[in-house]
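Sharing a chain and its predicted structure for anyone who wants a worked example. Both blocks are below, sequence first, tokens second.
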Amino acid sequence: MRTYEYQHIVSFEETNLVVRVSCEYFSELYAFDTVAIRMRLDSMTQNRITMLFEYWRITDKGEQLIAKGQQQTASMRREGDKLVPIPVPTALKEALELYRST
């Protein structure tokens, strides 16, 4: 029997890495809009990282804030059938510190 098969590699955003996410919308986007997505580190505590996002429409007349959001992730390790918190990996901490909110 003939079948169509698609193989997919699961990425981070498709896992249960994200603990909480929110987004507040201010305006619609349209086909062919140019959008800049800007991320800043809001906080990092024990095993959790909170990042802030801004979505800006870019036009010849300037920039317009379209939406802003927040995403929180947690560093966890599976032990049997349970997830246990672990510290944020050092390399990730160091990389994110460059983008800390002031």
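Comments welcome. Helices lie at 90-97.
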